[in-house]
Structure formats: structure tokens, C-alpha cells
Automatic annotation (TrEMBL):
Keywords: Amino-acid biosynthesis, Cytoplasm, Glycosyltransferase, Histidine biosynthesis, Transferase. Heteromultimer composed of HisG and HisZ subunits. It comes from the Bacteria. This function is generally fulfilled by the C-terminal part of HisG, which is missing in some bacteria such as this one. InterPro entries: aa-tRNA-synth_II/BPL/LPL, HisRS-like_core, HisZ. Its main location: cytoplasm. HAMAP family: HisZ. GO terms for molecular function: glycosyltransferase activity. Pfam families: tRNA-synt_His. GO terms for biological process: L-histidine biosynthetic process. This is ATP phosphoribosyltransferase regulatory subunit. The gene is hisZ.
């Protein structure tokens, strides 16, 4: 039996009305065309699949964010995707099986059991690009550049870029031989920039130099000059740590040349996605938005759970947030042509001819008056005049 509130949607679940939907679709086409021009092939993944597939690799952190249900056919647990990245990784590793680098992109809806921090939305339109099969910093630079070009394509202004590298923390903790519980506590302390806690957790290390390096991560944040300080403070660190620093320097130099107006902020204690990211992590921010507008990073060996380990790097964004904060060309509905209801020979043929030429034509239904045309976004009318069907201005 219907209730008075049957029209209500669950908290954080939103519908998209025509005006916004037109802008979102224009942005989607625009960005997928941009990705295609860079050589990224579109893939479409299922909304629902077995939970173990969704929560492998990059998906481990998504377990609490994933809606789950029982498949009535197999009896197995299904999940509603909360992130498309693991699905695309499966396609690359198992379905396509390419030997060299491959470039894939996607756009689709995802559902979260809870909203992200500083957000109320649980239903997002995730759009992104992934580059598989290459472990060099050139791939990271390509993905970051593509992300910035995507933001520019949507005329998102005032972007600044935050960059980190989880390989630095991972290299130091592995060299120190920390227990998993201590490493997790150190991770938590660094995220809160709790310098005293970091110092307490590292004071028992046998190698005082490693303890000092781990403590320094909490303070190594700022502009490009931070990388110079890092080379001094981390001198003598494991080779993997110095290689990670060199990668950051290369990325900083390249981006500074290509985007001199975009501020770069480096945070070597930034460990977002630490449990699946393996290298560079990055986020784009703009003023007035409390969360990143686009983000990504490197997650090598993401395909291991699907039978083939592959280095990978990529980025994603919420298309609705992008449209809300940008300016989308072509998102406005084009004025239409109103065709008066009439059972006249040739009317349908003329309407179809106009539509084939790209015109938006709305044929009146029985009982509709020409005065209703403006309500339907029409500024012209198709009438029979002088023995021919003619399109004239509505107020003529």
C-alpha cells in the first residue's frame, strides 16, 4: 500500500534532473573523447559481481563501503561495486592479457554504504583512466597530466596538486623490520602529524638513523623545496627510498614546466591508500571543496589476485562533483522545434528530416496547444504554409 513518503530516496542517494543530466552527459562525452585521443580504450564493467572479485587488490579497503547481498542463483555473496578500479584491473590482467602497456578508461555509477568524509553523497559517477604494464615515472607523469587536462577540459579553476610517495614510508619501515602493529600505529600517527607519537614509536629502533628518518616524514611537507630537504634528511636511506625521491623530483620538474601556474605541494607523510598504493599518490584540490576533486596513484601488482601481476597507475574523479565545480561547454539544451499536431501528409517525413539534420523536434500530442511550446523548450514552430512545411520563429 502506498505511503505518503514513498517518493523519498535513501540518505545520500540522489536522482539527476534533466538540466544537470545534460551537463553530466556533455562532460562524460567530452572526457571520454579526451581519453580516446590519448590512446585510452573504454571498458564497461558490471554494477554487481562476486564480492571476492571486488575486494581483491585495490579493493581490500572497500569492504565496509560495499553493499552485499546473496545471489539467488548460486548462493554466493555478491557486491554492488564501490570502486571500478579493481574491475578494470581484472580486465587487464585476466581478460585482455596484454603483454606490453595497456591504457583503459571507464565511467559508471558506484555505490557506497557510507559517504566519504566531508560529503553526503553515497551514489557517485566515477570516471577514470588506468595505465598498466609500465613501472616507470613516465607513466605516473602521463596519468597526472591527463588528470590535469581533464580538469582543464571542464574549466575547473584554481587547481593545486598534492603529491606523496608511499614507497618512502614502506622502504623505511621494511628496513627497520617493524612489527605489523607498530607499523600500523606509526602509519596512524603520521596521518595525524603527531610528531611526539612518531618519536615514541621509533625510539626503540636499533638503528637511530632510521628512527630519525621516520620522524622526519611528519615535517617533510611543502613546496618543491621539500624534496631538497628530503635528500639531506634521508641521506643513507635504503636504495628504494632514494629511487622514490628521484621519481618525485622528476615529476616535480616535468609538471613545473608544463603547468607553471599550478601550485605543487609535496607531503612525504601522506599515505592515502597505503594498503594498496605502492608508489606515487596524488590529489587535486580547489578552493571551497573540502575533499579532493580528483585523485590517483600507483598500485603495482594490482593484477596478482587475478593471476597476473602488473604495474599500474591511474586516477579517478566523481563526474558530478566535476560538473558542479566546472563549466561544461555544450551542456545547455538546444532550443527545439514545435510541430503542431496534425494528421497531414508529409508531416512525419518532414519531422524525421529535421531530426536527421540534428534538430530537436517535439510533436504535439492530441489536445496540446501551440502556446505550450515554450514550456518544452521550443523557440520555433513547424507549420504548413504556402503549400509547404516551414519552420518559423514561434512569435512570428
Amino acid at each position: 500500500m502506498p505511503t505518503v513518503d514513498s517518493w523519498l530516496l535513501p540518505d545520500g542517494i540522489e536522482e539527476v534532473l534533466p538540466e544537470e543530466a545534460a551537463r553530466i552527459e556533455a562532460a562524460r562525452r567530452q572526457l571520454l573523447d579526451l581519453f580516446a585521443s590519448w590512446g585510452y580504450d573504454l571498458v564497461i564493467t558490471p554494477h554487481i559481481e562476486y564480492v571476492e572479485s571486488l575486494l581483491t587488490g585495490a579493493g581490500h579497503d572497500l569492504e565496509l563501503q560495499t553493499f552485499k547481498m546473496i545471489d539467488q542463483l548460486s548462493g554466493r555473496m555478491l557486491g554492488l561495486r564501490a570502486d571500478i578500479t579493481p574491475q578494470v584491473a581484472r580486465i587487464d590482467a585476466h581478460t585482455l592479457g596484454a603483454e606490453g602497456p595497456s591504457r583503459l578508461c571507464y565511467c559508471g555509477s558506484v555505490m557506497h554504504t557510507r559517504p566519504r568524509a566531508l560529503s553526503t553523497a553515497r551514489s557517485l559517477i566515477q570516471l577514470g583512466a588506468e595505465l598498466y604494464g609500465d613501472a616507470s615515472s613516465a607513466s605516473d607523469i602521463e596519468i597526472i597530466t591527463l588528470m590535469l587536462e581533464s580538469l582543464d577540459s571542464c574549466q575547473v579553476k584554481g587547481v593545486h596538486l598534492d603529491i606523496g610517495h608511499v614507497g618512502i614510508f614502506r622502504g623505511l619501515t621494511q628496513s627497520a623490520g617493524l612489527e605489523e602493529s607498530t607499523e600500523q600505529a606509526l602509519f596512524d600517527a603520521l596521518q595525524r602529524k603527531a610528531v611526539d607519537e612518531v618519536r615514541q614509536l621509533t625510539e626503540s629502533l636499533s638503528q637511530s638513523s632510521l628512527a630519525a628518518m621516520l620522524c622526519s616524514l611528519a615535517d617533510l611537507s611543502g613546496g618543491v623545496e621539500v624534496l631538497e630537504r628530503a635528500h639531506i634528511l634521508l641521506d643513507g636511506a635504503p636504495e628504494s627510498v632514494m629511487a622514490a625521491l628521484d621519481d618525485l623530483v622528476e615529476i616535480a620538474q616535468t609538471l613545473s614546466r608544463q603547468y607553471p601556474d599550478i601550485p605543487l605541494y609535496f607531503d612525504l607523510g601522506e599515505l592515502r591508500g597505503y594498503h594498496y598504493h605502492t608508489g606515487v599518490v596524488f590529489s587535486a584540490y580547489i578552493a571551497g571543496v573540502g575533499q579532493s576533486i580528483a585523485q590517483g596513484g600507483r598500485y603495482d601488482d594490482i593484477g596478482e589476485d587475478f593471476g597476473r601481476a602488473r604495474p599500474a597507475t591511474g586516477f579517478s574523479t566523481d563526474l558530478r562533483l566535476l560538473v558542479e565545480r566546472g563549466t561544461i561547454a555544450g551542456g545547455e539544451r538546444a532550443p527545439g522545434i514545435w510541430a503542431t499536431y496534425a494528421n497531414e501528409p508529409g508531416l512525419q517525413a518532414e519531422v524525421m528530416a529535421l531530426r536527421r539534420r540534428g534538430e530537436r523536434v517535439i510533436v504535439a500530442l492530441p489536445g496540446q496547444m501551440d502556446s505550450e511550446a515554450p514550456e518544452h523548450g521550443c523557440d520555433r514552430i513547424l507549420r504548413w504554409r504556402n503549400n509547404a512545411w516551414q519552420v518559423t520563429e514561434l512569435n512570428n
